Amino acid sequence: MADVNRGNRPLSPFMIGPYYRPQWTSMSSIFVRITGLALLAGSILIVWWLIAAATSEAAFGFIDGLLRSFLGDVIMFFAMIALFYHMLGRLRHVIWDFGYMLDVEQSELFAKAMILISVLAAIFFSIVL
């Protein structure tokens, strides 16, 4: 072990800045995980709303008022963006599992399209529904 050359090793990717440039694919993968956690928080709000509807009128009035307020609209809109983004991220992995879109250019294009499609789909569904 003493003869191992430690001077010519590459730097770890944790050194963001001038050493490491984040790629679209890695950042979109990280955001898929983040949106999964955001969807968990959103589902807790929905379950809270359902439990409050089953328990008492006062409890339901509080959470229903929160979800129907401007803050609730903003939270639900971003939850819808997270839902579409997470869905597209899972779809991307299925496409990769079949061996398609594995080139760097195609993967980066799909990562950029995920952002655009998820925002447009959320705007569309919030206007229509």
3D architecture notes:
There is one protein chain. Helix 1 (24-55) runs antiparallel to helix 2, helix 1 (24-55) crosses helix 3 and helix 3 (70-97) packs antiparallel against helix 4. The protein has a single domain, classed as 3 helical TM bundles of succinate and fumarate reductases, CATH 1.20.1300. The model has no long low-confidence stretch (mean pLDDT 89). Helices cover 75% and strands 0% of the residues. The protein has 4 helices and no strands. The chain has helices at residues 24-55, 57-68, 70-97, 104-128. By secondary structure, the protein is mainly α.
Low-confidence stretches: none
What's the CATH architecture name?
Up-down Bundle
- Strand-pairing-aware structural class: mainly alpha
Query: How far is the first residue's CA from the last residue's CA?
Result: 65 Å
How many individual helices?
A: 4
Arithmetic mean of pLDDT: 89
Given this structure, which CATH class is correct?
A: Mainly Alpha
Strand content: under 5%
- Predict the CATH topology: 3 helical TM bundles of succinate and fumarate reductases
> Sheet bearing the most strands, described?
none
The total count of strands amounts to 0
What general outline do the C-alpha atoms trace? Answer: elongated
Estimated helix fraction: over 70%
Order of helices and strands: HHHH
CATH superfamily: Fumarate reductase/succinate dehydrogenase, transmembrane subunit
Cα gyration radius (Å): 21 Å
Into how many domains do the coordinates divide? 1
